[in-house]
Every structure is written in structure tokens, then in C-alpha cells.
Design goal:
Blueprint lengths: L1 H26 L10 E5 L7 E6 L2 E7 L5 H11 L3 E2 L1 E3 L5 H4 L2 H7 L1 E2 L2 E3 L6 H14 L3 E3 L5 E4 L2 E7 L13 E6 L2 E5 L5 H11 L8 E3 L11 H7 L3 E4 L12 H9 L3 E4 H4 L2 E5 L4 E3 L2
Helix pairs in contact: 2-4, 4-5
Length: 285
């Protein structure tokens, strides 16, 4: 009997070790990206925004979807093996952009949160700030001109340039650079916010390779002059299936397509992944 117990005990140890190894492998899955390669995944979170940029040694989350999608977002991140974020950049305090941020803070080790100081949805803001305090996570105000470097990745904050009182136009617009490739995350800026960026930086400085289309593809954003300036190869629209707003609006999709931009949509395509080696960007269909 003693021998049998030892065999059972030994088998149990093997199972435990295997489980530990499997868990470790899962937690490192996001780090299996080859050196010099990376990808941006724009999650399908309904009528909201959430995207993560992952490279071989880190990850940065841009917006965190809605309250209703927070469990889905955390599941997505865990399935990818992302248990640590170098930073979480929140464009503005509306529930479709920060609703899942508290859940992410509790589920992942977040290095810092970067967001503007504009006011928005009080209940979601309270949940977010409580989670930041509970997790002891540093909080930085998004300021135009600030640059954050995380190894091979640079994140530059372009706005807000000043606070207008409109949370959408006061969105933190960020450009992530990996190698020679530039990814722009626009929050919900509308025409006034786009005009401010054009006036402050000029068209050439706004040129990017991948654009997260502002305000879920609303006709209030992605104007002709701004689109000519950013001139992306790929544009991603994050919006819910059959949403109440009719997003994306046909004129925005048409404008993008008329410029020869590859348009991807989370309502149609599900989660969208854009791959890069620092020299080019591409999707897999």
C-alpha cells in the first residue's frame, strides 16, 4: 500500500508540474512574438474601443471597451497570454472606452495608466480610479508632446492640446511607433479635434501607416483634409453589430476606400489583427 501511495503521489506531482508549466507557457504566450515583429489587435467589444499592441517584450493597451464587454476583454488578453501591460492609454472617460479598465487593472499587472484629465462618465471614472488606487498603479495625465518609451516601442501623445470641455475632442490621440511603422489611436476626436491637430503639427507630421478610425466611423470625424494628412494604408473601425448610431457611416467608409485604404471593421470582421515587422504592415484574411 505504501508503494502504491508513493506512485499516486508521484503522479500527482507530475500533474502539478505540468499544470505549472502550462500556466507559465500561457502567461508568456504574448512574448512568443519573434524579435523584430509585433502586432496590433483591435478587439471586438461591441460599440466601444479596445486595442492592444504586442511585441516580443511588452504590450500596451489603448482603451478598454465597455462595462458589458469587460469580461470578454480580460478573456481575450488572457488567451493571448498578456498578463502584464507596460501601459494602458485611455483616450477619454466615456464608458465605451474606459468601461473595462478597472477589470483590466485587477486582472493584469499594469505598469502605468495614461489619460487626459477631462470629465466624463462619473460611475466609470469612480470604478477606474478606485482600481488604480487599489492596485497602486501610477497615473499620468496625457499631455501633448509627451513621449513614453517601452523598449522597441515609442508612444507619443499628440493631444489634447488644450481642454475644450468636449470629452470627445479632448481625447488623447496617440501615435505608437515600431521600427518605421506608425499606428495612430484617435479616441473619439471629431472635426474640431482633427483641425487642432492639423494646425498644431501640419500634415506631414501626422502621416501614419495604420489608423484607428475616430468615433467608431462617425461622419463627425475622419474629414477629407485629416485623412489626406494621415494617409494610412490600413484603417480599423471599431463598432458594434447593428448599433443604434448607424456606425460606421457610409460617407466615412466611402472616403477611406476612395483613398485606397484597406478598411477593416470589428462589426463585420470580428477582432482585427494588423501585423508588422517594423518595415511594413499587413492583415491576414
Amino acid at each position: 500500500m505504501a508503494k502504491g501511495k508513493k506512485i499516486i503521489a508521484a503522479a500527482a506531482v507530475v500533474v502539478i508540474i505540468a499544470a505549472i508549466i502550462a500556466a507559465a507557457a500561457a502567461s508568456c504566450a504574448s512574448r512568443t512574438v519573434s524579435n523584430g515583429e509585433a502586432y496590433a489587435r483591435y478587439f471586438s467589444v461591441g460599440q466601444g474601443d479596445a486595442a492592444v499592441f504586442v511585441w516580443d517584450s511588452g504590450a500596451v493597451l489603448f482603451d478598454a471597451g465597455t462595462n458589458d464587454s469587460e469580461d470578454k476583454l480580460v478573456s481575450y488578453l488572457r488567451a493571448m497570454g498578456v498578463d502584464r501591460l507596460d501601459a494602458m492609454v485611455l483616450s477619454h472617460p466615456h464608458d465605451d472606452h474606459i468601461g473595462g479598465a478597472d477589470a483590466v487593472l485587477h486582472a493584469c499587472d499594469v505598469g502605468e495608466v495614461i489619460m487626459p484629465s477631462s470629465s466624463g462618465d462619473e460611475e466609470d471614472e469612480e470604478a477606474l480610479f478606485t482600481a488604480i488606487e487599489d492596485e497602486g498603479c501610477p497615473l499620468y495625465e496625457a499631455k501633448a508632446g509627451d513621449v513614453y518609451e517601452f523598449g522597441d516601442v515609442k508612444v507619443e501623445i499628440l493631444s489634447p492640446l488644450s481642454y475644450t470641455g468636449d470629452a470627445n475632442d479632448d481625447s488623447a490621440v496617440a501615435v505608437l511607433t515600431f521600427g518605421k511603422m506608425r499606428f495612430m489611436f484617435t479616441g473619439d476626436i471629431e472635426s474640431d479635434g482633427e483641425r487642432a491637430l492639423l494646425d498644431a503639427y501640419g500634415a506631414d507630421a501626422l502621416d501614419v501607416d495604420v489608423l484607428k478610425v475616430a468615433h467608431h466611423g462617425s461622419s463627425t470625424s475622419t474629414g477629407e483634409e485629416f485623412l489626406e494628412a494621415v494617409s494610412p494604408d490600413i484603417a480599423v473601425i471599431s463598432c458594434g453589430v447593428d448599433n443604434d448610431y448607424g456606425h460606421p457611416h457610409a460617407e466615412v467608409v466611402g472616403r477611406l476606400e476612395s483613398h485606397g485604404v484597406e478598411v477593416m471593421r470589428t462589426d463585420r470582421d470580428g477582432a482585427v489583427t494588423v501585423y508588422t515587422d517594423g518595415e511594413s504592415v499587413y492583415t491576414k484574411k
